[in-house]
Amino acid sequence: MMDWGKERLLHNLLWLKITCFCISLNIKKEKNSLLEDIKRLKQDKQALEVDLEKMKKERDQAKDQITYATGEKLYEIKILEETHKQEISRLQKRLQWYAENQELLDKDAVRLKEASEEIEKLRLE
């Protein structure tokens, strides 16, 4: 027969072993859970990185489209400006021609009036 102290000590030792085993099981479960979380988070991170790259490409394409459209609009504006300048030049030339023509008409009108006055004067003599 064992004495009471040894029995108690063995009982406590057995209790400690059972407790350690249970703690070890809980730690393994927690470790497995954490490993699954890590795996899932890595997959999420990879998916987010793919999305980020896709968004960067879309952003770059949008920038390129804006640059192209802006360049295209600037080209259109330059063409319109050039057309406008040519039209202004054409209209200024026409206006100059009308002014010169009106000046000639005014001179002719004065000469015609003078000639009519001279004719009338000669008739009266």
Automatic annotation (TrEMBL):
Residues 24-72 form a coiled coil. Keywords: Cilium biogenesis/degradation, Coiled coil, Cytoplasm, Cytoskeleton, Microtubule, Signal. Residues 1-24 form the signal peptide. It is found in: Cytoplasm, Cytoskeleton, Microtubule organizing center, Centrosome, Centriole. Its main location: cytoplasm. InterPro entries: CEP162-like. It comes from the Eukaryota. Belongs to the CEP162 family. This is Centrosomal protein of 162 kDa. The lineage of its organism: Eukaryota, Metazoa, Chordata, Craniata, Vertebrata.
